[in-house]
Design brief:
The protein is built from four helices and three strands. With 139 residues, it is of the alpha+beta class. Helix 1 crosses helix 3.
């Protein structure tokens, strides 16, 4: 099976869906943040390994704790995955913290700040022009 084949893409999607369900509903570890999402899953073509990219809404401490909790529950997660998804081999899961969502939110906030500054500058320019026009009319 090739890396970008249709079969591999379907397996990635199914494993991602099942991992999200397991993390959201079945793991009771208090270290795992409630706002944890599985961003993407990449299962190797031989079905031996799997990289799961995880995103956590919260500070760095919450991210570290969630990653530690997921790594400690890795055996349970793999067992549940084997019961739910019928694969020849159940992949060994490696959890990787994904910062792309946090990066996107941060960039969006910065763009909004710049747009607000531009609007404020335009408002001052319009006010200054109106003031200049009134002074010209009075003279």
């Amino acid at each position: 099976m090739r890396k970008n084949s249709v079969k591999n893409t379907r397996i990635n999607g199914e494993v991602q869906r099942v991992l999200a369900e397991i993390i959201r509903g079945e793991i009771k570890d208090p270290r795992i943040a409630p706002m944890t999402s599985v961003v993407s899953v990449e299962v190797a073509p031989d079905l031996k390994t799997c990289k799961a990219r995880i995103s956590v809404l919260g500070d760095e401490e919450a991210q570290r704790e969630t990653l530690a909790g997921l790594r400690s529950a890795e055996g349970y997660i793999r067992n549940q995955l084997a019961r739910t998804v019928n694969l020849r081999n159940t992949p060994q899961i490696t959890f990787i913290m994904d910062q792309s969502i946090a990066y996107g939110v941060n960039m969006s906030r910065r763009i909004d700040e710049v747009m607000e500054k531009d609007r404020a500058a335009e408002g001052r320019t319009d006010t200054e022009e109106a003031g200049t026009a009134k002074n010209d009319e009075n003279n």
